[in-house]
Amino acid sequence: MNMKSKLVLLILTFLLFASFASANFGVYSETNILKGCQCSIFEDSIKIKNTGSQTTTYTLTPNFDFVNIEPATFELLSGEIQDVSIMVDAPCKILDKDLKIKVTSTVGDNYNIVKQLLTGKCQNLDVKLYADKAEINPCEELEYELLIENLGSFTETYSISSNYDVFWDLEETDVEIASESSEIVPVTITPACDVYGNTTVEFVVVAKNNNLQTILQHNVAINKNYDYTVSIDESIKLCEESPENFEIEIENEVDVSNNYNLKLIGAPSFVKLSSKNLSLEGEATGIVNLELNVQEGKHIGFYEFSLQTTSEYGDISKENNISLNISDCYNLDIEILNKGESFCFGEGQLNVKVANLGTMEEEISLGAHPNFTAFETDSISLEPGEEQEVGLNILFDNIDTKYAINVWAYLDNEFTVGDSTVIGVQSLETCHYVATDKSTYSLRRHKHNKTEIKFTNKGKTAETYTLSLEPVFWLTLNETSIILEPGQTKNLQLLSNHTDLTEFGVYPFNLTITLGDIEYIKFLTLELKDKPICEKTYIYFSDKPCQAATVILIIAIIVFLILALALKKRKGAIKKAPFITITAIMVALLIVFGALVCYYEGPPLLNEPIDYTE
Fold first, then answer.
1. How far apart are CA 163 and CA 299, in angstroms?
2. Is 2 contained in some domain?
């Protein structure tokens, strides 16, 4: 300190002490104004000098309890000086008051030292914000660091808040920092998944004691990234016989969970969604079924509708156009071609036609009933529109009967069609049966030595039959064997070696028709007859002309009598109606008489059948 300064100080000290000349002490202070920051501690000092002639004890008392004086009580010898420290622990508010320090002494001094006390807000807050990125996807985290520095002279508590504090991860929102210290506060914010676009994240840091506030902002771009894909067969072909459900696959392509709403537009009433909502985690895949309640015969046709999918986050809509073609895919037909056929004992076969009337290649299984029937193959494979004949083998018993035959064709999905028929089965004997035209034959002994027997094959196959007669006598056949096709008829001659002495009568005989082990025995008769009555009458009257003339005369008289009754002259004309009537009656009588004469065979023969074995 130079001499000039020392001189000024001495003058000021003199003036101050001079002002207290009436007291036994003097006070020295460099300033009458105390300035400090609110919520802080600051100091001042004064000097007390004992200007009296005796030793004195002094006591100093402030008018504020946040002011501390040290020492508050002390003793000074005459002329001695005491340094007194004044410490102000300023409250956290603005002050503009008088600090009064009352000085009392043991010698009766009482004096107030007055200083103006001013406190205000002092800068004790400095904040910096650091962000790890300026662009993110929805639901993605943002990492921040808040650097808070306490510039003040006292420990401060800082409160942190944000417009995104509902989405942040911050355990403590209040941070206490010592004077002239700093701290880094990490903050993680995850915006809601439905937030996108340019967004401002704001942080507010407030010094609680000093009530200072700092606002920091960070602009971040949140991409509208809610991409997803919808996969479905947009051209559905369906068979009405086997309806099925179709999957709608939704894939969330981003690492953001989302909800999806599904809606059918223009769909027929039998098409439904298994669920109208689907929730997916990020990069996950989910399935919703398109349910088709198809009823046979009701829903065949072509339908067009659309599926609309909308994401809850991002409000992204997608639409898939769907065509649905329902057809009669599994249509089969089976038909027995030779219905009502008859078979012989042994093995037989029915021809069965199987057709695929559907739209897909099918493996068709075949079945038949009763159990003695079997198809040549258990199944066949047919293309759409293709048909094939399959043999149905049948093994018959040796009886004459009828069977109901049922056949069916079916698919793996149990679609089945069938057909049936009734077939006749003939025993071995019936199947090769040969019939004769009649059982009684006749010959005129005087002029016939043969007659015809008609043989008809009533069976199913062409065969050669062996013929024989029993007993062996004057009747024989002109052939001992005959070949007949099914349904064919042939005539053989039955030869008779009778004589004029052979008696008239009915001669029974057996015709045996043999085919392998099969024998058909026909019980036949031959009637050996005399001349007819008309022939005998002619021979009789040819030998006796008088009797013939008499008969003719009688007939003529009868005719003329009838004519005389029927004819009557009237004005030279004959009545036509009676004449025609009488003439018709006469002709009818002559015809009847002639027939009786020609076919009358005389009295019945009473001969007993002849036993040719004797």
1. 58
2. no
Strands 416-426 and 401-410, by their bridges, are: antiparallel
Classify residue 185: in a domain, yes or no. yes
Whether the CB-CB separation of 163 and 250 falls below 8 Å is answered with no
Contact 119, 36 (CB under 8 A): yes
Which residues, given as ranges, of the chain have pLDDT below 70? 1-23, 241-242, 297, 547-549, 562-583, 585-587, 589-614
Residues 197-228 pLDDT 10s: 888 999 999 988 877 888 988 999 988 888 88
Q: Is residue 42 a contact partner of residue 88, using CB atoms and an 8 Å limit? A: yes
Residues 205 and 164 in one domain: yes
Same domain assignment for residues 510 and 458: yes
Q: Are 27 and 100 in contact (CB under 8 A)?
A: no
Q: What is the rounded CA–CA span in Å between residue 590 and residue 596? A: 10
468-482 b/e (C-beta count within 10 Å ≥ 16 → b): bbeeeeebbbeeeeb
- Strand runs labelled E in 377-438: 379-382, 387-396, 401-410, 416-426, 434-436
Domain limit, last residue, from 380, 396, 428:
428
CATH, residue 151: 2.60.40.10
pTM of the model: 0.42
Q: Does residue 251 sit in helix, strand or coil? A: strand
Query: How many domains does the structure of the chain reveal?
Result: 6
Residues 132 and 217 reside in one and the same domain:
yes
**What is the per-residue pLDDT across 517-556, written as a single tens digit (0 to 9) for each?**
888 888 888 888 887 777 777 777 777 777 666 777 777 7
89 is in which domain, residue-wise?
A: 13-120
